[in-house]
Amino acid sequence: MQYAGELENAWLFLYKSGADQSDCALRNLQEVLRKNDDLPVCLADVNRVRDIHPVYRVDSVPVLIELEKGESRNVVKGCHQEGFFSAFFENALYRAQARKEGKTPKRVTVYTTPSCPWCNTVKAYLRKNGIPFREVDVSRNEQAAQELVRRSGQQGVPQTDINGQIVVGFDRKKLDRLLELE
Question: How confident is the model at residue 1 (pLDDT cuts 50, 70, 90)?
């Protein structure tokens, strides 16, 4: 048996059975865990475990707490879809692996629109290389679109932000260099 404090990464999900938001989050999280049964995730129903809130400074549930060597590193509140939980775990494992290899994990955001074929190419390339990313659909987020034009001077997509450096289009060489894939 291993304890969460001994593991590089573990997660604690606090929820309240019978509450709509908690039941929603639990259902979606359990579906992800069913497909990834090796993830070290502990579940605690606050109806049964009443003294856990102050330990992790939690004042509302549902909440998923990322633990790194037993210490709280990241907190996600509310009900999220399966895809969100999957990406959350992938990102945490990527960061841990990068740190283990002495690399700095990259913050990657891909700005897209639904009708953009090159956007799909960039996302597929990142997935193929195991790079977690956040996607922003600029057709639905006017503020993000304006900020992107201000930062890059370009309106087209895809644009990929890697630790503050913008790559316009699918520039494989530049992506490889910034992501240290060379």
Answer: very low
Assess whether 28 and 63 both reside in one domain. Answer: yes
Provide the terminal-to-terminal Cα distance of the chain, rounded to the nearest Å. 40
DSSP bridge partners of 108: 162
User: Do residues 115 and 86 both lie within one domain?
Assistant: no
Q: Which of 100, 118, 146 marks a domain boundary?
A: 100
Indicate yes or no: pTM above 0.90: no
Q: What angle do CA 100, 55, 8 make, to 5 degrees?
A: 15
Q: Which segments within 51-133 are labelled E, that is strand?
A: 63-68, 71-77, 108-112
Of 96, 109, 107, 32, nearest to 69 by C-alpha is: 96
pLDDT digits (tens, 9 = 90+) for 90-107: 877 777 777 777 777 788
Tell whether 80 and 50 lie within a shared domain. Answer: yes
